Amino acid sequence: xxxxxxxxxxxxxxxxxxxxxxxxxxxxxxxxxxxxxxxxxxxxxxxxxxxxxxxxxxxxxxxxxxxxxxxxxxxxxxxxxxxxxxxxxxxxxxxxxxxxxxxxxxxxxxxxxxxxxxxxxxxxxxxxxxxxxxxxxxxxxxxxxxxxxxxxxxxxxxxxxxxxxxxxxxxxxxxxxxxxxxxxxxxxxxxxxxxxxxxxxxxxxxxxxxxxxxxxxxxxxxxxxxxxxxxxxxxxxxxxxxxxxxxxxxxxxxxxxxxxxxxxxxxxxxxxxxxxxxxxxxxxxxxxxxxxxxxxxxxxxxxxxxxxxxxxxxxxxxxxxxxxxxxxxxxxxxxxxxxxxxxxxxxxxxxxxxxxxxxxxxxxxxxxxxxxxxxxxxxxxxxxxxxxxxxxxxxxxxxxxxxxxxxxxxxxxxxxxxxxxxxxxxxxxxxxxxxxxxxxxxxxxxxxxxxxxxxxxxxxxxxxxxxxxxxxxxxxxxxxxxxxxxxxxxxxxxxxxxxxxxxxxxxxxxxxxxxxxxxxxxxxxxxxxxxxxxxxxxxxxxxxxxxxxxxxxxxxxxxxxxxxxxxxxxxxxxxxxxxxxxxxxxxxxxxxxxxxxxxxxxxxxxxxxxxxxxxxxxxxxxxxxxxxxxxxxxxxxxxxxxxxxxxxxxxxxxxxxxxxxxxxxxxxxxxxxxxxxxxxxxxxxxxxxxxxxxxxxxxxxxxxxxxxxxxxxxxxxxxxxxxxxxxxxxxxxxxxxxxxxxxxxxxxxxxxxxxxxxxxxxxxxxxxxxxxxxxxxxxxxxxxxxxxxxxxxxxxxxxxxxxxxxxxxxxxxxxxxxxxxxxxxxxxxxxxxxxxxxxxxxxxxxxxxxxxxxxxxxxxxxxxxxxxxxxxxxxxxxxxxxxxxxxxxxxxxxxxxxxxxxxxxxxxxxxxxxxxxxxxxxxxxxxxxxxxxxxxxxxxxxxxxxxxxxxxxxxxxxxxxxxxxxxxxxxxxxxxxxxxxxxxxxxxxxxxxxxxxxxxxxxxxxxxxxxxxxxxxxxxxxxxxxxxxxxxxxxxxxxxxxxxxxxxxxxxxxxxxxxxxxxxxxxxxxxxxxxxxxxxxxxxxxxxxxxxxxxxxxxxxxxxxxxxxxxxxxxxxxxxxxxxxxxxxxxxxxxxxxxxxxxxxxxxxxxxxxxxx
Length: 1157
Fold this sequence. Notes:
This protein is α+β, with helices and mostly antiparallel strands. 49% of the residues lie in helices and 16% in strands. The strands form 9 sheets. It has an 8-stranded mixed sheet with strand order 25-24-23-22-28-27-26-29, covered by helices on one side. Strands 3-4-18-5-14-8-9 form a 7-stranded mixed sheet, sandwiched between helices. The protein has a 4-stranded mixed sheet with strand order 30-31-33-32, with no helix packed on it. α3 (101-115) packs across α4 (131-145) and α29 packs across α32. It is flat and about 170 Å long. The chain starts with 9 loop residues before the first strand and ends with a strand. Mean pLDDT is 83; it is low at 1-25.
């Protein structure tokens, strides 16, 4: 990336009907303060700070120094990291838009993708300045703009999800930052030729492991401890032998256990999900949590002195409960670890000397073990993440590195950690200055501009003071740690005073006194180094111990003996067979080598810099502390950076965009210049009367020396743009008025034409209507005249007919009246007779009814009277308790009827028949239920009495299969109706298996054909599976040759899935002879029967220890030295309906199981 400000010329598509419009943009447009510090005028510390303040107050948190991005931590969310912003900065020139971290990320990504240049992004700054967030933004931007696809998205998700895991184990709350990274991280993201991510590699530097044992006031231990105790389930905490109360653990500080804005429980769930996405197996996650719990338990172990005969004190563990629980978590014998805390064995050649440890030494050993256990666990996590995210392809990759490391640190009390951190920053400053100057020089040579030497402070002398192999501070510290005799921090300081006293950047109390200078600010136990960022006072206390980083060999060997799955990987030096008497390398030597490798790596890549600054110590928004920002500007060397950038020419720009931007300042170049762009720029600068000393012409760019010249051109351009805007407005308004007038004129003509047409049309329609009316009236008069004539003729004819009809009618009616009168007279006589007969009948009916009523009344009265007489006669014979006896009699009769009815309504004798007769009366509910229960028990007993011994054994096996698989295995329901046959091969009768039958001495309980799954390709090979009372045998199906014979006591567990497949894994006891070739992964059609018989027979063979049956869709199988995960998924294979096994990678076999219909 070329230094200085480079404006560019871009095209944007838009407008109506796909019209094209050219839009020229630049960093100089609508600028708040100065967007690039190279253009700051005047340049001094006060103006630098004031420019940062001005931009910070307007929410402009990013500022450039050439190609370097300064990032201010806003301590709040800003709407500048949205997907819209990502698209805005995508494929845009670095200086085209306002300063942003996305611009640097896009420039680095496009250089890597298009120019095939490896990139690195160096993020520095003190704790709380936002380095970690900056690295996340860079990675999220690259993930957003690169390619898409299932595999690419998976890689991107794994790279992004590695951050929460490392933050949980490597970050902590400090007084400066609630999420401070306590380790340095460098990630190489690898891309293919298309720019799609393939994977990555993470390197970690100098984890602050001393924080595990002790935290300063107001700070916390690493996040994972608090997240585990807050977010894990009660069941998980019980397995880890932990309690949610932070106060029960000595390694956790209580004054800052909870942090505002941090939800430890939610963070723990996020970390578990991230570990799953990255690729951690469930047992690996459990192993990591067990080690975290062991560290907490280790901090609770306390010691007491115990006097010995020789007069020396020996340390003993006070309360062994925490020691016991820790040993159970790690699988260590309690006595072994207890002895390692009380004795130390020193080996020299062929001699071993055992010495006792006092209480202070025991506490040192305990803390050393805790720090080493946690730091090695963290290194294992990084290695494990690298295994998951590393690129699989073997082709050459493009690489983008992201470095997030400690910034320069100056505290009131600076120790070995600050010394190492500041040494790393000295090396980064050195490479920064070298690469910046080299970039400037290469551009000047490329453009044909004369290169002038730039005066700057070269911190190589400070780096040499620290890292020189002969007289460097680190070399002398290693020499002190390795030499025999009494070694203390004071002897180390004396050596420094002897060798470095004359160095111009080294100061101590003794070196000052030798020069007859008195400096009371310099204590006797301290030394001071003049770093590039300022003077730092270091206290030598703890330098030797922290550099030694010593872990007693007894503790390493005790850890190696643990049965925990990770301990042997974490403590390989504890292997008794590989005892190395050579002293391990010191912490300073290791870090120096790591920094050297990092510097060599960075020098092979194109660097991009992000300098992070925090505006205040209160972690609050809208507060800008000048003194704090000034302090960071100094030790980040930002002023030095600006001076290096401005040493030659402050501004450079290609001729074409320069001419496009400023061509309106000269009449000869406005509006279009027809010649070469360089000639146009020369004419432009000559017309603007710019002094020749203020600029230089390169081969493709114009170089301007002073920012004031650029600002003058910008002011003139701004004024000219205002004049051009006024002219454009005038022309536009005239065009708009003329267009409006012409439109009105055209509209008037059209309206008049339409009106005339409408008026003529209406007149024509009126005349036409009048004509039609006249025609209709004439035709009507003629028609009516003809109609009157026809009607008259018709009426004459109808009158004759009517008169004749009326005459005939009169004659007929007269005859009819005569006949009716005669008929009426006859009917009157009949009606009168009928009425008289009816009257007589009704009178007789009323008389008979009255007589019947009187007879009924007499009968009723007599009945009532007889009833009264009877009741009076028998009342003296009636008793008071007759009602109760009648009730009891009725109840007995009902129960007798109920029990007699059972004889004919009893259900069948089948135990599975659930029918029972209906309950007749509610008061018999209890007796009804009890009789049903007794009858069921009786018929079950009768049914069991019919069983033979063999049939009873079969049912017992079916019952055990139900207890193991019911509601757990989808295959179980289909096996219920199938009898357990046992010998499916008929091995006793089949002559093909006579040799195999003679080789098996015991009775064969089960013989079947199974498929042995091959790890290499997931395919199955047929094998004969034989089960006896003491072992199981696998033999070749064709030859009958025995392949493996395993005693049942060596079988520890059987693993199956929950689905309808026939796959199962036989897991053997570690260390046994049978386990040399690993576990067996088999499949069978009779899985339920095989595992049930194994479980019954194995329990008898193992003297009561049951074989564990693990039912899970994901389990591990040991193949020789490697563990492979077998994972079951839904969705059948392409051909067939059976389950199919397929190898996905070296550590995963995937079984596709058809979905249930």
